[in-house]
Amino acid sequence: MSPSHKGKKPENVFTPRAPDINDKMYVQRPELEQALKRGLRTNLHLLIHGESGSGKTWLYKKVLKENKFEIFIANLATASRLGSITAEFSDLINSYEEPQKTGYSEIKKGDVSAGVASASVQHQSNYKIGEMEPFEALLKHISQKSSGKPSVLVLDNLETIHSDPKLLKELADIITLIDDSRYAKYEVKILIVGVPGDLRSYYNNTPHLTTIANRIREIPEVSRMTSEQCKNLVKTGFINELGYEIEDFDEIVNHISWTTDKLPQRLHEYCLELAFLGQENGGKITKNLLDDVDRYWLQTSLSASYAIVESMMNERETKVQRRNQTLYSLGLVETEEFRVTDIEEILRKEFPESTVDLTLNISKALSYLASQNNPIIKRSPKGDAYCFSDPKYRMCLRAMLRKRDNVDKVEKISISDIS
Ligand SMILES: Nc1ncnc2c1ncn2[C@@H]1O[C@H](COP(=O)(O)OP(=O)(O)OP(=O)(O)O)[C@@H](O)[C@H]1O
Ligand SMILES: [Mg+2]
Description:
single chain, 50% helix, binds adenosine-5'-triphosphate
């Protein structure tokens, strides 16, 4: 079927930052879905973690919806801005109810006589006698709205309060309180979502908060998709949804998976650029479009990383571009952590002519890259290896650097000439 018959636009199929799920594009992740489903059947509160763009939000929305849970989402980023989680709960209640019916909205508009400048502090302290405190009011609201259905209160963006002991203590209080009979009667489960996975260990290491760790069940880390899942995503998007033809399917999928490191958000970004070019190409996806897609994707999604890597490259004139070879070799690393010897092995294999019988100072090249203002790699927590300071650098290196055949030189794809 030709693309015009499908009538779908690439931007409605590949949606890198869409918070709402597109059911047709959702790729099953059975292990994570099972783990979350099992967690929902226990009486523990849950923690989902994984790096940004790994699919946490899509995962919980999909599983909760399928299992007929009502979802209510509070944003810990707002809590951080307002100075308390309770303040965010008040805001949520405000957004659910008509302003004139709540005491909180009046205070928010700036009740000068209260004499307290911050709306957030007022949220916490100024509910009147006979009125419920915001947390209980929110639970009550959730329970009423759900009318008998199981419900979950999601606290998303944990990373925004991660280094704030006051807010982490407030979160601990919330988790303790919700199991108290006064709050437990509303039967709301808490699902904490965010980038760091060490919330339980934080509470475990904070003596008076240890009991909290026992109330939280951690879902395995949401990370990369599998090769099979990437393949499904590409197939569903291009063939089923857009009705495009893909030549050299396996080769193209391999390139997409490799370059985007199989991170869902990056896959969507990359496929969107490819779909735009495919559309101009009459609905045909061919591998000779990939170099251009790499450039467009670098420019639209990774331009800041591109500039940083570029600033670390040897000048063109340098005879042996050891640093460039090191950067190229880093892009080939598959593991999270890597040692000097791992990089040296890759580099010797990739650049045999310029390394044979020579001692290479890879250790120096890596410490250079780790000691810049914007370091692309950093020492691992134990200090005996390195890891990328952000996973996007690996993708950037993969999309950006090309080995020039036979001369052991590395070149960058130029993005400056894209209009
Ligand atoms: N299972 C999936 N199938 C297909 N696409 C997915 C899937 N999960 C995520 N995506 C794609 O990745 C994008 C990012 O996913 P999501 O918003 O769930 O990530 P996140 O981990 O919540 O990120 P953040 O930490 O930044 O909030 C989605 O908008 C969607 O395009
Ligand atoms: Mg999210």
